[in-house]
From TrEMBL:
Coiled-coil stretches: none
All residue ranges annotated as the Cobalamin-independent methionine synthase MetE N-terminal domain in the record: 3-316
Protein's name in the database: 5-methyltetrahydropteroyltriglutamate--homocysteine S-methyltransferase
EC number: 2.1.1.14
Length: 761
């Protein structure tokens, strides 16, 4: 009757860690205060799992910032610029690497596989001096033990650590990260020996990179690494944990032949083929940690179905060798449903957050051992049944309309060149037209107005009046700055997905459903539980109000279907693309209503299009096809003279450039200023782009105000690569996090730069 949890959220049920971190960073509390909050969180998590009956409880899954940065600390792989002089790594060095300090910027951060979690990328060169510099894993193991909980310490496996790293500056092209394996393994040995001495019986190595497309040499690194660790590991049970996708047959073979390894953790939720691999060949005497409870979503497990999967696996691996587990760390789900006081009871019965998933894992393990909690299973079965039959989930008209889209194609009637001509006749814009991405600074006052309206503390009239005044201010400012295509500033929006989700059917919202994005930052994704439709127009009132304040074109501002999908918890009872098509139809209704209301330029943001790219290359084409199709569905019905913009928040899109072209937008604005070369190189290499394009001319993530010359210089660089008549001039992204004191001079310099260059063409 064994159960295991791969990892657990660290933030706490009410984001206690976030507040403790931020207060420490702001020097409002001491290191001891922060350590106390952290210790209390760890202790309550361990005790909660122990009380639930979990046998293999993880430790070292807590982190003050990021588990990969923790591994970097263990290995003492601090980049020299942080001036660390050896010894145990303390908060100073640790948080400098994470967040930068007055003189040195932070290390690079990137997405953790296809999740919305971001990790700090290790930077490794040939001359890093590895040393055992953080005893966190051992300390946490001992801490739990002192509380009476014997845990399974978790380390990022040595090969995944290297594969997730990047070569240090200067050796990018020449350096093989895997060549560092012999240098880091001695440190791993020290950690393992210490854990053993402290009494650990098990150890878990997370090796999620095993699910990626790996070549033979990379796979060989796993074989070599664990062979090297074998002696040190002897006497311990060793679990290699993989997650987020299936293993290829080669990776599975490599995994199951690793020396010194006694247990394999496999994701049976995302890994749909994995079961077949297990059935066809599972090494005798080894443990299978079967990840049947989804760590990436908030849905209650279908316990009956999981139980029958587990029973089938038990027949293959043997009764005492099967351990019930989560598909991955629960880091990627919300913390505790108990705190959701505002969710409707029926919807709540369909959900399970981390705390509830722990209970599910245990219930499954007990049922396997013949101690089925009948009441728990019956309640679960009736919740599953209610979810299947509930009228709030199913909307037949929507299902039909979405199904009808599948086989067909949706494109605007004419090509982009003809459309741009028609639009130019109507809009009459100068060359190098200027615009912004949508949001203007969100002042405290504005947030207060929205909050009070939501809480019914101010009337709708007062709210509308306040928002109108804000829009008027933003419109006047843009006219004064002489920007060509205006925006209304998005003062009515708190978040670009939540704003639409709240007005669409099929969405639910939590109060405390936070998920860590990076460091102390959390997001609260909406839950898409049913068929999506749009009961009434969502933005038309604000956009036409804004348009009535100016003669210049006012951009309608929408979030695209793929971004809404990728930034939500998505239903798991139908394929993702089906949900995406439904959202696309709802946005299409909105686009057409905006057009009818006289809005001639409509921006449909797809900030998260690239994020949804599957981990495995073999699945890329399918995703890109339906994602791009969904975007086109939203605007295929508009007239030639209606100009469709889209916007994306990253420049690294070499791998999806053809999808971007295939989106067939009239104008695309893209983040660019932090990596000029990456974006422009795509075009330099000969990719033809006929639509309008606005690579961001300055970084809105920084308070720095760029000068006119600097911006003009940037635009000139773009002009060297792109045709004059397709280039737009705009910042990188929305201005919502900036202050007016920064935005005014920056935009004024931006317009000045565009005007300067117009005179030189
Ligand atoms: N229109 C949104 C804004 O300006 C876009 C935000 C984004 O791309 N993340 O805020
Ligand atoms: Zn953006």
């Amino acid at each position: 009757m064994a159960s295991h949890i791969v990892g657990y959220p660290r933030m706490g049920p009410k984001r206690e860690l976030k507040f403790a971190l931020e207060s420490f960073w702001d020097k409002k509390s001491s290191a001891e205060d922060l350590q106390k909050v952290a210790a209390d969180l760890r202790s309550s998590i361990w005790k909660q799992m122990a009380a639930a009956g979990i046998k293999y409880i993880p430790s070292n899954t807590f982190s003050y910032y990021d588990q990969v940065l923790d591994a970097t600390s263990i290995l003492g792989a601090v980049p020299p610029r942080y001036g660390w002089n050896g010894g145990e790594i303390g908060f100073d060095t640790y948080f400098s690497m994470a967040r930068g300090n007055a003189s040195v910027p932070a290390m690079e951060m990137t997405k953790w596989f296809d999740t919305n979690y971001h990790f700090i990328v290790p930077e490794l060169g040939p001359d890093v001096n590895f040393s055992y510099a953080s005893h966190k894993a051992v300390d946490e193991y001992k801490e739990a033990k002192a509380l009476g909980v014997d845990t399974i310490p978790v380390l990022i496996g040595p090969v995944s650590y290297l594969l997730l790293s990047k070569p240090a500056k200067g050796v990018e092209k020449t350096f093989s990260l895997l060549s560092l394996l012999p240098k880091i393994l001695p440190i791993y040995k020290e950690v393992i020996a210490e854990l053993k001495a402290a009494g650990a019986l098990w150890i878990q190595f997370d090796e999620p990179t095993l699910v990626l497309d790996l070549d033979a040499q990379q796979l060989q690194a796993f074989t070599a690494a664990y062979a090297e660790l074998e002696t040190t590991l002897s006497g311990l049970n060793v679990l290699i944990e993989t997650y987020f996708a299936d293993l290829t047959a080669e990776a599975y073979k490599t995994l199951t032949e690793l020396k010194g390894v006694t247990a394999y953790g496999l994701d049976l939720v995302r890994g749909t083929q994995t079961i077949e691999l297990i059935k066809s060949n599972f090494p005798k005497g080894k443990y299978l940690f079967a990840g049947v409870v989804d760590g990436r979503n908030i849905w209650a497990n279908d316990l009956a179905s999981s139980l029958s999967t587990l029973q089938a696996l038990e027949a293959v691996v043997g009764k005492d060798k099967l351990v019930v587990s989560t598909s991955c760390s629960l880091l990627h789900t919300a913390v505790d449903l108990v705190n959701e006081t505002k969710l409707d009871d029926e919807i709540k019965s369909w959900l399970a957050f981390a705390a509830q998933k722990v209970v599910e894992v245990n219930a499954l393990a007990k049922a396997l051992a013949g101690q089925k909690d009948e009441a728990f299973f019956t309640a679960n079965a009736s919740a599953q049944a209610s979810r299947k039959s509930s009228p709030r989930v199913t909307n037949e008209a929507v299902q039909k309309a979405a199904a009808a889209l599948k086989g067909s194609d949706h494109r605007r009637a004419t090509n982009v060149t003809a459309r741009l001509d028609a639009q130019q006749k109507k809009l009459n814009l100068p060359v190098l037209p200027t615009t912004t991405i949508g949001s203007f600074p969100q002042t405290l006052e504005l947030r207060r107005v929205r909050r009070e309206f939501k809480a019914n503390k101010i009337s709708e009239d007062d709210y509308v009046k306040a928002i109108k005044e804000e829009i008027k201010k933003v419109v006047d400012l843009q006219e004064e700055l002489d920007i060509d295509v205006l925006v209304h500033g998005e003062p009515e929006r708190n978040d670009m997905v939540e704003y639409f989700g709240e007005q669409l059917s099929g969405f639910a919202f939590t109060v405390n459903g936070w998920v860590q994005s990076y460091g102390s930052r959390c997001v609260k994704p909406p839950i898409i539980y049913g068929d999506v439709s749009r009961p009434k127009p969502m933005t038309v009132f604000w956009s036409s109000t804004a348009q009535s304040m100016t003669k210049r074109p006012m951009k309608g501002m929408l979030t695209g279907p793929v971004t809404i999908l990728n930034w939500s918890f998505v239903r798991n009872d139908q394929p993702r693309f089906e949900t995406c098509y439904q959202i696309a139809l709802a946005i299409k209704d909105e686009v057409e209503d905006l057009e009818k209301a006289g809005i001639n330029v409509i921006q449909i943001d797809e900030a998260a299009l690239r994020e949804g790219l599957p981990l495995r290359k073999s699945e890329h084409a399918f995703y890109q096809k339906w994602a791009v199709h969904s975007f086109r569905i939203t605007n295929c019905g508009v007239q030639d003279t209606t100009q469709i913009h889209t916007h994306m928040c990253y420049s690294n899109f070499n791998d999806i450039i053809h999808s971007i072209i295939d989106m067939d937008a009239d104008v695309i604005t893209i983040e660019n200023s932090r990596s000029d070369e990456k974006l422009l190189s795509v075009f330099r290499e000969g990719v033809k782009y006929g639509a309008g394009i606005g690579p961001g001319v300055y970084d809105i993530h920084s308070p720095r105000i760029p000068s006119t010359e600097e911006i003009a210089d940037r635009i000139n660089k773009m002009l060297a690569v792109l045709e004059t008549n397709i280039l737009w001039v705009n910042p990188d992204c929305g201005l919502k996090t900036r202050k007016y004191a920064e935005v005014k001079p920056a935009l004024s310099n931006m317009v000045a730069a565009a005007k300067l260059l117009r005179t030189q063409l």
